[in-house]
């Protein structure tokens, strides 16, 4: 399975997933930290992929949905976006609703 197939598999198998630098409990970048914190505040489980430990995913993820930066958040297989979009959704209450609907 090549990297893009692996990414697709992860996105399809997890209702909510964040591709980030580090982990939610040990983020390695401020943007990843803030996005993961917003997801954690939603109170539901979500998957994460540390792109720093998987060079193939780090290299190929920007090609997957034509989104060049990290983190990338996917809900129900759809790219939500990165840190700014995630925080904006959280402030409006949209992130909590989307995560709540995705994770039953």
From TrEMBL:
CDD domains, per database record: GRX_PICOT_like
UniProt cross-references to NCBIfam families, sorted A to Z: Grx4 family monothiol glutaredoxin (TIGR00365)
A GO term, aspect molecular function: metal ion binding
Name used for this protein in its record: Glutaredoxin
Record domain Glutaredoxin: where: 16-80
Homology family: Belongs to the glutaredoxin family. Monothiol subfamily.
InterPro entries assigned to the protein according to its UniProt record, in alphabetical order: Glutaredoxin, GRX_PICOT-like, Monothiol_GRX, Monothiol_GRX-rel, Thioredoxin-like_sf
Alphabetically ordered keywords of this record: 2Fe-2S, Iron, Iron-sulfur, Metal-binding, Redox-active center
Gene source species: Thiohalophilus thiocyanatoxydans
Pfam families: Glutaredoxin (PF00462)
Residues involved in [2Fe-2S] cluster binding: 29
């Amino acid at each position: 399975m090549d990297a893009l197939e692996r990414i697709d598999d992860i996105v399809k198998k997890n209702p909510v997933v964040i591709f980030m630098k580090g982990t939610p409990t040990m983020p390695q970048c401020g943007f990843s930290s803030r996005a993961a914190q917003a997801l954690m505040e939603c109170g539901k489980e979500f998957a994460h992929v540390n792109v720093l430990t998987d060079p193939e995913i780090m290299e190929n993820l920007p090609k997957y949905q034509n989104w060049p930066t990290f983190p990338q958040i996917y809900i129900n297989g759809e790219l939500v976006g990165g840190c700014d979009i995630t925080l904006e959704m959280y402030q409006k209450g949209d992130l909590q609703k989307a995560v709540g609907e995705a994770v039953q």
